[in-house]
Design brief:
By secondary structure, this protein is mostly helical. The protein has four helices and four strands, in the order αββαααββ. Among the domains are: 63 residues, 3-Layer(aba) Sandwich (SRF-like); 76 residues, no CATH class. Strand 1 and strand 2 form a beta hairpin. It is rod-shaped, with a radius of gyration of 47 Å. InterPro entries: MEF2-like_N, TF_MADSbox, TF_MADSbox_sf. Pfam families: SRF-TF. Keywords: Coiled coil, DNA-binding, Nucleus, Transcription, Transcription regulation.
């Protein structure tokens, strides 16, 4: 009867039950493992150590350059200054991430401050030049102040027509401050001696100012 060959079969990754098969497989796989370790040393120039205990508790080793020097280097690595070198990069990255988070938080705060200051500056510019707006855009306090200024200007022009057609804003207009008109900011309109340009208002000396007091 002819012998039937089944060819190479893939063995399942489970522990073998027969002791004889187990020992034979261990011997073959051990040689293959040491061969792969030797190839790795040749190709990459690394130092490597492999310790294997057989099912019968015998020890087999492979080392390049030798197993003892590899073990000594490993022990020195665990108890020597190389441990700090291993942890160093991770610690540095954590510190840098912490600093980056703090700087981003500071940048966010500075942006909020800039936004707030820009808003205040824009409001101040609007308040300081409110008289340049069209009359229909003025509110009641602004209209009252402008009428008071024009009335005083008309009286001054009637008594002293030779003086230049400019007048300083009266100090008693809003008590020297303009408050709660734009967002509740108290900004002094007269701290820098703001001047009204009569020509910018298209002032007519013959214009009759309505009397809102009656």
């Amino acid at each position: 009867m002819a012998r039937v060959y089944r060819g190479r079969r893939k063995l399942p990754m489970v522990k073998m039950e027969k002791a004889s098969n187990l020992q034979v497989t261990f011997s073959k796989r051990k040689c293959g493992l040491f061969k792969k370790a030797s190839e790795l040393c040749t190709l990459c120039g690394v130092e490597i150590g492999v310790l294997v205990f057989s099912p019968s508790r015998k020890v087999f080793s492979f080392g390049n350059p030798d197993i003892k020097s590899v073990i000594n280097r490993f022990e020195n690595y665990l108890h020597g200054p190389f441990m700090f070198f291993e942890d160093g990069p991770n610690t540095t990255i954590q510190d840098l991430n912490s600093q980056l988070t703090q700087e981003l938080a500071k940048l966010k705060v500075e942006k909020e401050k800039k936004k707030f200051l820009d808003k205040i500056r824009n409001k101040r510019e609007e308040i300081e030049k409110w008289w340049e707006n069209p009359p229909n855009q003025l509110d009641l306090p602004q209209t009252t102040c402008l009428i008071s200024v024009l009335e005083n200007l008309r009286m001054e022009l009637g008594t002293q027509p030779s003086q230049p057609s400019q007048a300083i804003v009266p100090q008693n207009c809003y008590g020297g401050s303009y408050n709660n008109i734009f967002g509740g900011d108290n900004i002094d309109l007269f701290d820098q001696g703001i001047m009204f340009d009569v020509n910018a208002l298209n002032y007519d000396p013959n214009m009759v100012i309505p009397n809102y007091g009656n």
